[in-house]
């Protein structure tokens, strides 16, 4: 069953990138992240009451709560970096780097969770790294404002991947002794606090009045897609190995590339398409 949840997570995560890209086109990325987190929070707590796990809150241990908070903090940092990178670069540029977090996740799973990688996983990691490199389009102008902009989205994308890897490991530890929907809902509170804390610190809340109806719609839809992805992801993570669940979730890059072509008209070059094939092939090898 965890396998179905993992693929469900990949589907909704792929949709999230496109919906969010459209939603933040005319909106500050930090403000958009804070707003969409409200949708995720409401949806996650709705699921808690649907399954009735709210009655187990008083049995949560201090250790579980600590790791849920740390996981939520890592998620908040990853989101803020990811959507800033998404605002500065294209979906097909940012997504491969963010999905490469699987490499660091597998390493951390080996170090802290005792999940030993196989030979196939080792080959998969090499293919994944090479594919990610090929999907990073090289620009002719690497100096001046254009070059600075390119380097900026790249830095944010790399940071997003690092924090995403930490999220998976911390989340895996945090949900071991708690119902997955409740764990997701609790950690979403942390993400919400971090996101809105940054918005108020930067005084970006004043920009809410300038958000158009289309942006509101897609920010809301991206939050809903994220909520569905999270619920599937952490349910899969609770029953399956992190080193297996995470690679399947990263197959969302296929959904993202397809949707980016349909809705954003972002086409892959021959180099990037080759990289995509390597990423998918490497990810599938990780499952062995």
TrEMBL record:
<feature type="transmembrane region" description="Helical">
    <location>
        <begin position="242"/>
        <end position="263"/>
    </location>
</feature>
<dbReference type="InterPro" id="IPR037185">
    <property type="entry name" value="EmrE-like"/>
</dbReference>
<dbReference type="Pfam" id="PF00892">
    <property type="entry name" value="EamA"/>
</dbReference>
<protein>
    <submittedName>
        <fullName>EamA family transporter</fullName>
    </submittedName>
</protein>
<feature type="domain" description="EamA">
    <location>
        <begin position="2"/>
        <end position="136"/>
    </location>
</feature>
<feature type="transmembrane region" description="Helical">
    <location>
        <begin position="30"/>
        <end position="52"/>
    </location>
</feature>
<feature type="transmembrane region" description="Helical">
    <location>
        <begin position="215"/>
        <end position="236"/>
    </location>
</feature>
<comment type="similarity">
    <text>Belongs to the EamA transporter family.</text>
</comment>
<keyword id="KW-0472">Membrane</keyword>
<feature type="transmembrane region" description="Helical">
    <location>
        <begin position="185"/>
        <end position="203"/>
    </location>
</feature>
<feature type="transmembrane region" description="Helical">
    <location>
        <begin position="106"/>
        <end position="133"/>
    </location>
</feature>
<dbReference type="InterPro" id="IPR000620">
    <property type="entry name" value="EamA_dom"/>
</dbReference>
<feature type="transmembrane region" description="Helical">
    <location>
        <begin position="153"/>
        <end position="173"/>
    </location>
</feature>
<keyword id="KW-0812">Transmembrane</keyword>
<feature type="transmembrane region" description="Helical">
    <location>
        <begin position="64"/>
        <end position="86"/>
    </location>
</feature>
<dbReference type="GO" id="GO:0016020">
    <property type="term" value="C:membrane"/>
</dbReference>
<feature type="domain" description="EamA">
    <location>
        <begin position="152"/>
        <end position="287"/>
    </location>
</feature>
<keyword id="KW-1133">Transmembrane helix</keyword>
